[in-house]
TrEMBL record, chain A:
Component of the 20S core complex of the 26S proteasome. The 26S proteasome is composed of a core protease (CP), known as the 20S proteasome, capped at one or both ends by the 19S regulatory particle (RP/PA700). The 20S proteasome core is composed of 28 subunits that are arranged in four stacked rings, resulting in a barrel-shaped structure. The two end rings are each formed by seven alpha subunits, and the two central rings are each formed by seven beta subunits. The catalytic chamber with the active sites is on the inside of the barrel. One of its GO terms (biological process) is proteolysis involved in protein catabolic process. Keywords: Cytoplasm, Hydrolase, Nucleus, Protease, Proteasome, Threonine protease. InterPro entries: Ntn_hydrolases_N, Pept_T1A_subB, Proteasome_bsu_CS, Proteasome_sua/b, Proteasome_suB-type. CDD domains: proteasome_beta_type_7. This is Proteasome subunit beta.
Automatic annotation (TrEMBL), chain B:
Non-catalytic component of the proteasome, a multicatalytic proteinase complex which is characterized by its ability to cleave peptides with Arg, Phe, Tyr, Leu, and Glu adjacent to the leaving group at neutral or slightly basic pH. The proteasome has an ATP-dependent proteolytic activity. Component of the proteasome, a multicatalytic proteinase complex which is characterized by its ability to cleave peptides with Arg, Phe, Tyr, Leu, and Glu adjacent to the leaving group at neutral or slightly basic pH. The proteasome has an ATP-dependent proteolytic activity. CDD domains: proteasome_beta_type_3 (cd03759). The keyword Translocase does not apply. This is Proteasome subunit beta. Pfam families: Proteasome.
Length: 269, 204
């Protein structure tokens, strides 16, 4: 079998073997999921996106500070919930497609373009690519906010929430959202919605990430709020009474890295 | 029985001051029977990048061979070694390609990047990268490893202290897991040398 790197897309050659193992009684592995609270809202000058930072593997917290707000274009960002590998792969792929499109057309990307590329991909895999996204950005036609479900359906909304903490966050939005919010009011409302997800939903936790997109400008506020710091760390640290017993040691010195400096005149053309 | 519990494994990597350490257990079993006590789970890709693979042993070996092949192709084309961040993206892409019929292993990647800055990351079996600044764990003993590392880790440790910490975390975690253990294998890598040590642990 040739091992030349394939042209792209998914490869299904291990499916038969994995099905055979499952039939023999072995359970399939669990994937890294982002339990998550992700939100977006449209304010006076643009769009604000927010997300928590916890990644779970079953009931265990695998990553206490992961990034769920993915870059799509300089004026478009996307929050992702669901299977972590799927959200990362699908947003990376559409981000590259948007860049190629920008080179071809010579124009800034539009949010609706990203939306159509994402929903086409997700629908064609019939929901098996488990990515639930909140897509927001500001383009020539104004600010836009969309939600995309794993089966490929989309909604266009003034404020949106997704993920396991979406009900907690939506309750905050439904109570306090109004049109024409200023930047500071919008950030405060998004932070409050994410915090309500962090404290009430077990699948969301750790810190709040916020991204503010306006016409011609974006601000990615990583770890904008850290409502769960580690306050119980002892300053003395851990001291070990018994040292580990070592059976064998092998030391491999690493070669000095060579720095090549150009000496002499450059070659003539 | 869980697929990841077929062979049993424990892999952990930690970041220190301009150095990193990666450690694994040495048992290879078939469910409850031990068939080898010197299984190599951590492999060197090049002098400054190591990968530890936990999970189904056959996929560990196949995936390692594929990655070494891809790295050799890269070395021939680019005439240099891969950076650890680039290598992590390569592993993630190879795993995601098999999204609907995945390799049943979870890699832990550790390396020294530009300016000798240590880099560690882990992934689930379909390539979801999880970068961390302190430690990453994987394998059947992962829940105990999370707890032990969370308690014992301190930032900016020197190589000797890092070795002691990662060894104590590994040995105490595999002692609470039936499927991994039978010794430990620790690599501590600084910009000037690679120290590989075999640990004496409980053989049960």
């Amino acid at each position: 079998m040739s091992e030349v790197p394939p042209k792209g897309g998914f490869s299904f050659d291990l499916c038969k073997r994995n099905d055979m193992l499952i039939q023999k009684g072995l359970k399939a592995p669990s994937f890294l999921k982002t339990g998550t609270t992700i939100v977006g809202l449209i304010f006076k000058d643009g769009v604000i996106l927010g997300a928590d930072t916890r990644a779970t593997e079953g009931p265990i917290v695998a990553d206490k500070n992961c990034e769920k707000i993915h870059y799509m274009a300089p004026n478009i960002y996307c929050c992702g919930a669901g299977t972590a590998a799927d959200t990362e792969a699908v947003t990376d792929m559409v981000s590259s497609q948007l860049r190629l499109h920008r080179y071809q057309t010579g124009r800034d990307s539009r949010v609706i373009t990203a939306l159509t590329l994402l929903k086409k991909h997700l629908f064609s895999y019939q929901g098996h690519v488990s990515a639930a996204l909140v897509l927001g950005g500001v383009d020539i036609t104004g600010p836009h906010l969309h939600t995309i479900y794993p089966h490929g359906s989309t909604d266009t909304l003034p404020f949106a929430t997704m993920g396991s903490g979406s009900l907690a966050a939506m309750s905050v939005f439904e109570a306090k959202y109004k049109e024409g919010l200023t930047r500071d009011e919008g950030i405060k409302l998004v932070a409050e919605a994410i915090c309500s997800g962090i404290f009430n939903d077990l699948g969301s936790g750790s810190n709040v990430d916020i991204c503010v997109i306006t016409k011609g400008n974006k601000e990615y506020l990583r770890n904008y709020m850290e409502p769960n710091p580690r306050t119980y760390v002892s300053s003395k640290g851990y001291s070990f009474t018994k040292k580990t017993e070592v059976l064998r040691t092998k030391i491999t010195p690493l070669m000095e890295r060579v720095e090549i400096t150009e000496v002499g005149e450059a070659m003539e053309e | 029985m869980q697929i990841f519990e077929y062979n049993g494994s424990a892999v952990v990597a930690m970041v220190g001051k301009n150095c990193f350490a990666i450690a694994s257990d040495r048992r290879l079993g078939v469910q409850l029977q031990t068939i080898a006590t010197d299984f190599q789970r951590i492999s060197k890709i090049h002098d400054r990048v190591f990968i530890g693979l936990s999970g189904l042993a056959t996929d560990v070996q196949t995936l390692y061979q594929r990655l070494v092949f891809r790295h050799k192709l890269y070395q021939l084309r680019e005439e240099r070694d891969m950076k650890p961040e680039t290598f992590a993206s390569l592993v993630s892409a190879i795993l995601y390609e098999k999204r609907f019929g995945p390799y049943l292993c979870q890699p832990v990647i550790a390396g020294l990047g530009e300016d000798d800055k240590p880099f560690i990351c882990t992934m689930d079996s379909i390539g979801a990268k999880e970068l961390a600044k302190d430690f990453v764990v994987s394998g059947t003993a992962s829940e105990s490893l999370y707890g032990a590392c969370e308690a014992m880790y301190k930032p900016d440790m020197e190589a000797e202290e890092l070795f002691e910490t990662i060894s104590q975390a590994l040995l105490s975690s595999v002692d609470r897991d039936c499927l991994s253990g039978w010794g430990g294998h620790v690599y501590v890598v600084t910009p000037t040398e690679i120290k590989e040590r075999i640990l004496k642990g409980r053989m049960d």
